[in-house]
Amino acid sequence: MKLNDLFFFVNVVDRQGFGAAAKALNVPKSSISKRIAELEKDLGVRLIQRTTRRFAVTDAGKDFYRHAAAALVEAEAAEDAVKRRLSEPRGLVRITAATATVHMALADLLPELTRQYPKLQIGLVVTSRYTDLVQEGIDIAIRAHRHPLPDSDYVQRRLGYSPNYLVAAPEYLAANGSLSRPDELAEHSGIVPESSPGSLTWSLRDASGGVVAVQPRPKLFTDDPYLIVNAALAGIAIANLPHGLAWPHIESGRLVHVLPEWDAGGATTTLLMPHRRGQLPSVRAVVESLAVGMAQKMAFR
Fold this sequence. Notes:
Elements: H1 3-14, H2 18-25, H3 29-43, E1 48-50, E2 55-57, H4 59-86, E3 91-97, H5 99-116, E4 120-126, E5 140-145, E6 155-168, H6 170-176, E7 189-192, E8 202-205, E9 211-214, E10 217-221, H7 225-233, E11 239-242, H8 243-252, E12 256-258, E13 266-273, H9 275-278, H10 281-298
Parallel strand pairs: 3-4, 3-5, 7-10
Antiparallel strand pairs: 1-2, 5-13, 6-11, 6-12, 6-13, 8-9
Helix pairs in contact: 1-2, 1-3, 1-4, 5-10
């Protein structure tokens, strides 16, 4: 049994098709099909049922895939173990994260990471979309989430929790009045996430655990974190911002922390990795560096 045949088989299953695997690997589709046919002949069992309209992995193929994927990881790890004795982590590590995470942390951390490990390559996909890590060849996904992530086969590593603050420019408060109670937000302008332009509800919690839902008047619709910051700085409206974006401007006095005795929520940041990729030394090196750096940048609790 040839390791290359296992490699082709795992890639076809990961990408759910011969054509997608051929394109990703830059190998003729006919070559991949031939190698897997030879693999099935050697094993004496059908691994993949394929027609012009349907692609399906057989039960035997699913069992074989788990062991083949593990064998590839072990082979790659064996090679990397030798390389680690001679040099620092190397190769391409692909990361996906949302724009806010990039601005708050990765924009500073990733260049430093490539300086620390000159033979390491970083590929960053900036998107808020929840991607299929295996299908899209992603090694690490960084996700900020207000609710628990759904169960999956991914390895999850919780980095920490970052609070949100309600903030406004001093000029806005001078023109529209200061706030002392959450219900007063109904008389103020707010910035609405573009994903839900029909409503804007902020859930605020006091020290005793009481929760109040408030709705300011929508003034601006956007999901771009830096537009939200700039709009708040310009005195357009009140914004609900994560610590990493709000705190530098609060410290400088350009933004005021509105209703500071009320908790404005926040998000947990989690790293996700496909199990077989998360074992690789290059990925582990990136994960450890990001875990330390993001904790400092984002003031995790």
